[in-house]
Specification:
single chain; alpha+beta; Elongation Factor Tu (Ef-tu), domain 3; 3 domains; 6-stranded mixed sheet; 6-stranded antiparallel barrel
Length: 374
């Protein structure tokens, strides 16, 4: 057991639990999503203490050796003082490959990044010199799924000094990218129902069987399983079945949130979304579904990509109201229950804190924290 201080709040770790698990058990807010080291959302900085190799192994290259850690991978091996990531962590080092003058004041900068940039075509981003000066804002015009290079298109009458002096020999010029910048994305209209496709896929019983097989594969997949740790295969299969039945068959028996709200906390990049698509594709082929039908089926899933893929979480939206689910709330228990962390009984009429999204609550011993007086 080690003493942990995170953003001024103190707690004590338990053997073999990660820093993320420790903080959540202690009702200490921290950004997180995948819990598997993929999204990097829980990246934090260690100010005091030792770091194991596991704590840093999945970090972006640009952040290794600088006392950064991934809370979901870090099992404390000493007392620690840790702070949440700063705004600098949204900056990615890049290397230029080509700079082309399109027409008028329009330029296109093609480059490679030192770590994956999770973006969608059309999002805005900013580039600046390696000294973090002379920022230019433009539009990411490349396709993250198919283009080898990332391309930023921008309008600039006079190139900044760091680009202008290198324009004749732009290759290998290093610079920083900030973003992609968060903006509201306009989504295309949804596809109309196609009852014939539903029947061609085998109807209710066959489609349910396919989905059940698919989710067994999902729960065995190291990249996808962490997103489903608090829901059973039976429940997610049933929900997805009724969701697809609504959109493909046109029968509105689905009771649940729309994809944007239900996935609001998940940091999912295009590669992970494509990984899920490919897994479903393999399952459909195992059931001898034709390539034509697979493509038609995938179109119904692809239309929700803009609601799921993002580089940071967004709040739930109900009407005109936005609800932040990444926080703790307090409530008084009407009935006795047990602690989600140590299984100790919590009596009725006890004030407890719980995480609004994941719903876990802790007993007093597991959730005791204190504000730093320093």
């Amino acid at each position: 057991m080690f003493n942990i201080r995170f953003n001024g709040q103190e707690t004590t770790s338990k053997p073999n639990e990660t820093l993320l698990e420790c903080l959540l058990r202690s009702n200490i807010n921290i950004d997180f999503s995948c819990k598997s080291g993929v999204c990097h959302r829980c990246m934090s900085k260690c100010l005091e203490g030792e770091l194991s190799n596991d704590a840093t192994r999945k970090l972006p290259i640009t952040h290794r050796g600088k006392n950064y850690l991934l809370a979901c991978q870090c099992v404390p091996v000493s007392d620690m003082v840790v702070e949440a990531k700063s705004s600098d962590d949204n900056i990615t080092q890049c290397i230029a490959v080509n700079l082309e003058h399109e027409n008028g004041n329009v330029w296109q900068l093609a480059f490679e990044s030192y770590r994956v940039i999770n973006y969608q075509t059309g999002q805005r981003a900013a580039v600046m010199s390696i000294n973090m000066q002379d920022e230019i804002i433009g539009v990411l015009s490349s396709d993250p799924d198919n283009d080898a290079l990332t391309v930023l298109q921008f309008e600039q009458q006079d190139l900044p000094h760091w680009l202008n002096e290198s324009s004749q020999d732009i290759n290998a010029l290093e610079f920083y990218l900030r973003g992609p910048l968060t903006e509201q994305q306009e989504r295309p209209p949804l596809l109309a129902p196609n009852p014939e496709l539903w029947q061609q896929l085998g109807g209710d019983s066959k489609i349910y069987e396919i989905l059940n097989t698919f989710y067994h594969a999902v729960y065995a997949d190291a990249q996808l399983a962490p997103f489903f740790e608090r829901i059973t295969i039976e429940r997610i299969t049933g929900k997805q079945f009724s969701f697809l039945k609504k959109h493909i068959l046109g029968e509105d028996g689905f009771i649940g949130e729309d994809p944007k709200n239900s996935h609001n906390w998940m940091v999912v990049n295009h590669n992970l979304f494509n990984h899920r698509i490919e897994l479903m594709r393999r399952i459909l082929r195992d059931y001898a579904v034709s390539e034509t039908l697979i493509q038609q089926f995938e179109a119904y899933e692809e239309q929700f990509r803009p609601d799921i893929v993002k580089n940071q979480p967004w709040p739930k939206q109900i009407g005109d109201q936005f609800i932040d689910t990444e926080r703790f709330e307090e409530c008084v228990l009407d009935e006795a229950t047990i602690c989600d962390y140590c299984s100790a009984e919590i009596p009725a009429n006890t004030m407890v804190k719980y995480h609004l999204r994941i719903g876990k609550l802790a007993c007093k011993d597991c959730s005791t924290t204190s504000e730093s007086t320093e």
